[in-house]
């Protein structure tokens, strides 16, 4: 008999292969309610849910934050002392974590010297390339850097060799910074009449600079008591010498009331305190002052290139580094591809890969000298992605925050391909997203909700896309929502004429933007939409622009303080109880003395994460006990701040416990923009990007302007909220306003009265008007990329 053969048993799975899940148990960060979930590794998981439902709290504040904290703990204590400290998230179990790389929507640094090239490695590589191949040779890489000034020094140095002796030595370093504009590309001229009133003396409060009060250290005390000036003499009567010291004196130590302080001329002081900051990063009243007092012009010496003449004279194949940085990146990539020099082959290969990544991710229209502060949120996020595209790392967790923001439907497909490529290399990809086109590529979907704020924070659904569609969750019900084209569009009441617009890539554009209707400006990313709207519409009293720039505010700022809602509430409390309004501010007299009105006590543990615990004296209410004895409508001030917008609307309404029309008006606007779930005292630092923009929109709705300019208001909005936004835009138009919206969302396009489509491509391939007309005409013509995608969306 033939011997019996045994079927070989499959080998037992290796213990290391059993860790293929990220397990989260009992997550309670922000509004999460004991969330427990298991996420598959090496798959693409999309997190959905209405704005404020807890997506970011789960993905960023819990999973990614703990991963980063654990990695930071592997560094020596000395190094940890220089790193941002992070507290452990409020969660019971976090298991199976891998290294997390976060690619979020935070705007890039708005330093005037920060550009797309300096924010990535492209500029550093170009500088090395020109220092090796540029003719004539002018020096090392620093000679091509606009952030490095040229330095020359000479003097005696002591040489410790045998007998010590002093020898004369000179030292020089060649930098690329233009000495006239200090590497900024523009120079400023200051209007002195905006700085002071020369008919007054310093003691009489001559200064008209924001924050310079007549009794502050910087004005009367230093300028008046320096001994260089007569504080009681009107500035107009200063002698030549006094005027020179007053305006231009070099920093000099002076004694003021027993303290040694630095006296400095007014012009250099203004340049350091105001002009060294980026205009976009300034507070509104400071920006207004700078716009009034300072005129900026292109630097005549470097012609805006930021570089010295030497750096501009060194060339490779007739191209200088200034020319290379001003080219569109896709053209620069072609130029680099044409360089064949074996001595720098590895450098050329790395530079080529970086530039190709820009093109691949849809940013080929940018130039390396574009200031990073001018990038939109979506562009900044994609610039951050570039360093990860060619990475050899695998088994990493990539975390993305709405990567489709600022992308035309045509570009979303390309972004989807990139996310899938990252996953296919063996990485875990976690994406917070609202767009159905991006949710469609998910291997696994997690839907949070059911509502926002305190009504959210639970997992409503977990599974496949088909399962989500069949589920009865808010996202599932709205996943296939499609706006329909209007049967009738409104008729314009006038037109805003733009003639010969050439900002950035616009090619001498003439266009009439209709007024009294909802106008949507569309086009692929980089086609010139923002340049047309923000760069060409004259900013006047009649134009209110609500953009995506971040709200400035600390954890002490909240919706009540930001919108001005707290003012009438404090006055009502004061009137009802016969006391001062300042008692009802946690940042003023009413603050709990133990925690200074913060509500929490922070314990600094050196290199360890500082620990925050609720203040024991005020129990986190932020006010001193005496203040909480005063009531309005049966509630104390801490109870009012803990209310949601919807509750407060009822409380302060005509039939509520404390009718207060001034407060009710502001609360109505907050509810109008879909923020009814926010609590009045919630710190601004905990709001999502979409919530912040809608908060800004709510505050601007009270302004008197007739033209509203909105920059992608659907950013961070759930499908279910888009309908509410369309209703709000309709109400604004029906009340006699003109609304101009830059938008990629097809629901907003379909709802428009008039569409202006820019293109046909991005960068120098764009900048032209490719369509003007109604959405129905655009769908019927299908003559542009936008037309094709909109026709597909409405099912025509």
From TrEMBL:
Keywords: ATP-binding, Cytoplasm, DNA damage, DNA excision, DNA repair, DNA-binding, Excision nuclease, Nucleotide-binding, Repeat. Its main location: cytoplasm. It is found in: Cytoplasm. GO terms for molecular function: ATP binding; ATP hydrolysis activity; DNA binding; nuclease activity. PROSITE patterns: ABC_TRANSPORTER_2. One of its GO terms (cellular component) is cytoplasm. Residues 16-475, 484-785 form the ABC transporter domain. The keyword Transmembrane does not apply. One of its GO terms (biological process) is DNA repair. The keyword Isomerase does not apply. Belongs to the ABC transporter superfamily. UvrA family. PANTHER family: DRUG RESISTANCE ABC TRANSPORTER, UVRABC SYSTEM PROTEIN A. This is UvrABC system protein A.
